[in-house]
## 1
Amino acid sequence: MINSVNNVTQVNNVQNLRKSEGAAKVSRDADSISVSAEAKEMAEVYYMEKVANETPDVRADRVAEVKEKLKDPNYLNNAVINSAADRFLSALGL
């Protein structure tokens, strides 16, 4: 009786081995993903909005630079004033 129990165990081992070999033979196709143009555009808008929110409204380095330039009396001449006025008007669309 004991010998027949061992034989059953050996048969079970062979069956389990065959099951695992069969499972290994299963082939799978590679996964793929596609992103629509609309989703790409939305991601770009999200990124730009995030950068805009993180960027300060006032550039302290530029303000300090202009303050230093204004301390020099020779800096303010007609050419500089006209250039600044032209940039200001063009920013307003005039």
## 2
Amino acid sequence: MSLTTALTYALPHRLLSSMARSLAYSDDPRVSRWLIDTVTRKFNVNLDEAANPDPRSYPTFNQFFTRALKPGARVADADPRSLVMPADGRISQLGKIEAGRIFQAKGQSFTAAELLGSDEDAKPYNDGLYATVYLSPRDYHRVHMPWTGTLRETVHVPGRLFSVGPAAVNGVPRLFARNERLVCHFDTSFGPMVSVMVGALLVSGVETVWSGEEIPAYGDRITRKDYRGQGIQLERFAEMARFNYGSTVIVLLPPGVAEFAPQLGAESPVQLGQALAKLR
């Protein structure tokens, strides 16, 4: 384990994230411009794809960080049977959920039940598939729907806010099942599907298109919201939620419904809209 990762065990995660949030939402131009310039330069952000490519025109760092893309910058895979990639970034891991466990990194795994906060919620995904996509600070930070689905329930699971960078993923046991997260359950034409928005150190929020800001407030107990009967349907490739600062989204699929695109593997760079899997 790296020294930086080891130090994160002792850091006041929520205090640091709250401080980062204050900076991200500051409309002081000296603060916002410094943050935007620093992130753009350090992470080589491609602003040519942004709907608004002028970094000086964003009043806050958060508005810059959650910027929209220009029309046509991303398109959904042309095959109507393809489930599409939910975000820009890279594949951290993907594969089969074996004996209820999801592979994190060499020597590290966690259970689907831990991730979702419920043994019952995890049952439909026994022997199913998982895909973990890491969004770095340079990436587009809106998460979209892999497939058309009707929102059934969200589950806000409290936890820590470790970094989700590669060093932490390799060094922190059960990382994604320990960080605070929002679990989004959908009903689809092939059965249930879940997208998990995993918080991280210095992430100042998770927002959804149906409810606005979900994290913070940081939780101290599991909180469920039932959306059945409300008719909240999101189309394949439609925006679902967004992160403030880099983080991770995990998609779970039930067994037997799809196969991953053969070119995908750990560390594969990916873009929103490309084929994630194909329905059988």
## 3
Amino acid sequence: MISYIAFEGIEGAGKSTAISAVESYLVDRGIVVTTVREPGATKVGEQIRSILLDQDIELDAWAEALLFAAARAHLVRKVVQPALDRGEVVLSDRSVFSSLAYQGGGRRLGVDRVRMVNAAGLGGIWPHRVVLLRVDAKTGLGRQHVADRIGSEGVEFQDRVAETFDSLVESDPERFAVIDASQTSDAVVQAVLREVQRWL
């Protein structure tokens, strides 16, 4: 069963709006949903999040990647896996694919190396499907109200992240649904809901 769905994209792609719409759609149909965000959704994860997104903190690229991986491993063990075991649908604002794109591509650490670092902590629990909201970097960055440490990296960095997301889609097309996030919010939501209906 398709029960673990992640929402991905560069900064300003509109993940939160899409997730909220999907959550409401599923709950209205009597489906039990657990919604999480990465990093976060646990006490450990939220503390790691505060470090990762703090503009006043300078982090080595590998330290950043490992902190994301640590928060994710804890989240999967404590929240995601138990929810899946209960038969719930898990909706995740970002996932391991963000690390592959942001740290593997954006930070140039290498997608395969970042994948290997995360694999042990995930224990095989990867999103069954991924909604990739695709928008150009200038548009996405222009939508941000307040940029965090990673969101303030600029267009060139976001372009590298976007290119890596596209390469991930090419290598695993069955897992991804790519949505044009430059459309109106309503159009994006409807496109996302059509994919979710198809999966479930």
